[in-house]
Write a structure and sequence with these properties.
glycoprotein (chains A, B), 2 domains, homodimer, lysosome (chains A, B), 7-stranded mixed beta sheet, alpha/beta, AB_hydrolase_fold (chains A, B), two-stranded antiparallel ribbon, Four Helix Bundle (Hemerythrin (Met), subunit A), Rossmann fold, 10% strand, signal (chains A, B)
């Protein structure tokens, strides 16, 4: 049972936070605890997609704990009312989530025989990786170190150029097939052209096998956003083997996508969009089981999108922009005011652009210690990640052939050498931290 | 203008925080900023009682900033309603105060010409010293180091013995005059004896020149608490020269007090209490201007007592106990449940005993850096302070002849050598931190 509000005393309610424990290989007393700092979704899904922890538990004699983030999965502070309005959503913040993790670990250490002196290592990917880095920064008394995999802790206002994210997406497509990025860049105009007539809209809907056919030009904007998100998701999950993270996909899915986009500059709009449709179906219908494509969803339902929108609309303000030149998307500037207005309309709250930088240190984090920032060279989120060593104990591991937190996944025969080396190095750091902690306890 | 709630987005109101700036000696651009992290009271009072900062401003080319803590002085988030109920008090927490300080400094660096690269050093005493230590721990991106003077960051459940505080008070009296602690220890029973009759109550009230005479035995408990607090306050302000911090007092006021308590064991209850009354008047009427003694107040009105009670009733849970053997007070155990019930009765909130330790690290703070913990050997608050070096950059300075943050006061011809040395060492560390920061900026 955890406080709904760690930072105020008026709301004294508690809620049940879900966490999963695997102690089969735990050496007690004192064996380490690998603690997954859950992100915006169902913790069982993250648990199943973090094979790395399962694979190293035995050699480290470690207990595994996967803690669900409040407001996601089954960890709903107000049950079914948790998302009912901004009053109930008020306790959905990263600070509250970190406090949940801290209190959970303190409770385990107090109550679980053999855990009192167990060093705890935070592990997380993506937003969960940001949380594990911040957890070590804010609660070094609770965790001896953190692996922040694909954690864009610098994707905040004023820290990195807003266009880098989409540049990396574009590079992934550019190097995965002839003319692949060029044809996606051309496709937006082709969609506009074809959509200008009712028959064109119908053709486009048929070609993409849309579950809900496009009815007018207004819906075309949503259709383009959906396509754009599709390409982004592909860049995130461009893994070297068949996998099912956001969707079931073939090995190197962008190469598979680009096979349909290797068209010459002479093709017609219809020919081009036929290729785009085939490409999209690689993502949405690799298994062949989809009878139609649903533009209201781009990834697994295990992610809590509404909660994440709220977080983006409050603390997690991540500027993104495109120029259509260095990237393959339609030009769009970052417009904070418009974003804020949208947030106010949707949730009745306004984002605080500078808060994350103030509270989590922005680029001034050199005084912290024992954090590994791992990033994949293919992953667009590496644009906001830490990709150089800040100090001898704030280290970066770059996996050139890696997409979004590839290192956290189960090992695979098709893993590139870079991710094998990354995982080895990560375990080496874990051992170092565990040793440091043992020395501190015995001192 | 600052957010009333830094940790939630439903309450989007702002308030005016007061802060005082002195930039006469500031070397701009880039000269350091000495930032006083205001505690539970009017900031002008702290400003006037922190002469150390004024005296070193010139040699460091520093700007001075004194920031008032929310809910104290004029920094009231809801104006006159701020204390009206637990709903309005909900934003009175140390975390919110630290966030105010962080946002204030970030704003100054953005808007004040020449301040962008100024290293900021946090300085505070007592609760303000706890805040400056925690400020460096939680926001090392904002402050390069902290001087935490007489900051009892370990006066929390499970960290230090609850009786140490009163033991130190007792030692101060024991060494300041013959039989001084012994007679105070005896006085509690004498008060009980004398108070058992109406004429005795009247005599006691007259002897102590009480503004409101004691009417019954129930009031005697309050009277004894007031006396106990008087002795504690004397221990805090046992300065070597005439001073006016909590009250106007002579040099070494405990010695002056003990002059009235050097009585032999043969004295009667009335003779003993006559001495105690004379002793109390050293504290309450050194200037001779008080016509009567007011048992509802023990110190300056510049402290915000109600706010501090609320903080003690929420986060700042500081166990205290007495045994009457190793200290000179009536035995009283620490009773968390009774304390919690009192808090619930008074404010409608309950304290969270473990939270401060979880959020601020308790005794596991070794991974932080650049904090000086200074403590006076005479100061009872040193019982909960850091009085040994934790690492090469988490250092302790003990001032054996010092009372409560003597080092922060203006220098004085009667200063003991230990406090002179302490101040010198503190400035040396400040210079080191400033140099470190300059290297980081130019790197």
């Amino acid at each position: 049972m955890f406080q709904i509000d760690h930072f105020g005393f008026l709301e004294d309610g508690t809620f049940k936070q879900r966490y999963l424990v695997a102690d089969k290989h735990w050496h007690k007393p004192g064996g380490p605890i690998l603690f997954y700092t859950g992100n915006e979704g169902d913790i069982t899904w993250f648990c199943n997609n973090t094979g790395f922890m399962w694979e190293i538990a035995e050699e480290l004699g470690a207990m595994l704990v996967f803690a669900e983030h409040r407001y996601y999965g089954e960890s709903l502070p107000f049950g079914p009312d948790s998302y009912s309005d901004s009053k109930h959503l008020n306790y959905l913040t990263s600070e509250q989530a970190l406090a949940d993790f801290a209190v959970l670990i303190q409770d385990m250490k107090r109550t679980l025989p053999g855990a009192q002196h167990s060093p705890v290592i935070a592990i997380g990917g993506s937003y969960g990786g940001m949380l594990s880095a911040w957890f070590r920064m804010k609660y070094p008394n609770i965790v001896v170190g953190a692996l922040a995999a694909s954690a864009p802790i610098w994707q905040f206002p004023g820290m990195v150029p807003c266009g880098d994210f989409y540049k990396i997406v574009t590079q992934d497509f550019a190097k995965s097939g002839y003319n692949c990025d060029t044809n996606i860049r051309k496709s937006w105009k082709a969609i506009e052209n074809v959509s200008s007539t009712a028959s064109g809209l119908q053709w486009l809907s048929d070609e993409f096998s849309l579950c809900s056919p496009l009815k007018n030009m207004n819906e075309v904007t949503g259709f383009k956003n959906w396509l754009q998100e599709t390409w982004v998701n592909l860049a995130m999950v461009d893994y070297p083997y068949e996998a099912n993270f956001l969707q079931p996909l073939p090995p190197w899915p962008i190469q598979a996508v680009c096979k349909h986009l290797g068209l010459d500059s002479t093709v017609s709009d219809h020919q081009l969009l036929h290729g785009v449709a085939q490409a999209a179906k690689v993502y949405y219908n690799y298994t062949g089981s989809s009878s139609c494509l649903n533009t209201s969803q781009t990834a697994t339902g295990s992610l809590g999108l509404l909660g994440w929108y709220y977080q983006a609309c409050t603390e997690m303000v991540m500027p993104m922009c495109t120029d259509g030149v260095q990237d393959m998307f339609e030009p769009e500037e970052w417009n904070f005011q418009a974003f804020s207005d949208g947030c106010n309309f949707m949730f009745g709250v306004r984002p605080r652009a500078d808060w994350a930088g103030t509270v989590y240190g922005g680029k001034d984090i050199a005084s912290h210690s024992n954090i590994i920032f791992s990033n994949g060279g293919l992953d667009p989120w590496s644009a906001g990640g830490v990709t150089y060593n800040i100090s001898s104990s704030l280290v970066s591991i770059v996996i050139p052939d890696g997409a979004h937190h590839l290192d956290l996944r189960y090992s695979n025969a098709h893993d590139p050498a870079s991710v094998r080396a990354a995982r080895e190095l990560e375990v080496k750091y874990f051992r170092d931290w565990i040793k440091q902690a043992a020395r501190a306890v015995s001192a």
